[in-house]
Give the backbone structure.
Amino acid sequence: MPELRQDPSTKEWVIIATERAKRPHEFQRPNPPVTASGLGCVFCPGNEHKTPPELWRFPYRSKTWTVRVVPNKFAALSTQATGSRGEESPLYHRMDGFGYHEVIVETPHHDRPMPLMETEEVKQVLFAFRERYWALRKDQRIKLVLIFKNHGPTAGTSLEHPHCQVIATPVIPSYIRHKYDVAIRHYDDTGRCIYCDIVRAEKEAAERVVQHSEHFLVFEPFASRSPFETWIAPLRHNSCFARVTDEELGDLAAVLRETLARLYYGLGNPDFNFVIHTAPAEDEAKPYYLWHIQILPRLATPAGFEIGSGIYVNPCFPEEAASFLRNVRVESTKPAVIARVKQEQPTPQVRCGGHEK
């Protein structure tokens, strides 16, 4: 029988369509391999003059680089805008398109996507994320900094060279505010962070857990919107991604690299998006939100019902997706512990609102 499942973090419903169910291996797609040469690629070394003026690089003040940040040449928002508001009528409101839009070039190697990087290389990319977050936050007009990655044509990317993007906006979208409203109501009712409760519940259930490291839990959400939707969530309560410690950053690099490698090898290098969900500027220290990474492989296309109802139809049980990913073996410079049954690992303490829970 089909199931309707509700996402506790948004209160939105998802249909797990058993009549359309696919086994996890049926989502494997032999995507074409990336090309080894990026002849003419604007992000490859030697073509730095083809991008807008550089904002940041690592290592600092070095002739060579491992990570590089430049403004997006085709930015969605402009730093030249004023951010002034106006209205065409009492119904229609407008605002100058102020904001920041940057590209983080993850590596000088054209043919080295994140799943194939060394852990240290991924750590440098995450370090760039943290650095750019605080650099953009210095502008008091910025309310939200969103870091994301599009991998593959169906995920929205047009350039093959591995890169991520950062967009900083002067407004908080209603989708983000809705998630916060749900989190605040849960905190008011229970005194706990809804996301920490989700992490704790997933650890205890174990069946949807893919990976468990010292600082992070990787799992398929109970109400996954699409096949192989994957979350990486910290075990320490923290609303703001940019407040991660150096130790956590190193662990996250190993976990993120291994999670993407499981998808890469298990599903044949699928197109995907990942987003770092982090608190808006005004809520970075609040007790009711937990930053986390959401990975969405592009394995299904929303159709009329999803568009008309807002209810996603997922033909793959998240429990089966988790089992499949657990069994994908990849090399790792710092292997994380695989959580198969809940007795394998003690439950670490997670801080919610300043209290041990």
The CA atoms of residues 163 and 318 lie 28 Å apart. Helices lie at 119-137, 174-190, 194-205, 246-267, 304-309, 318-326.
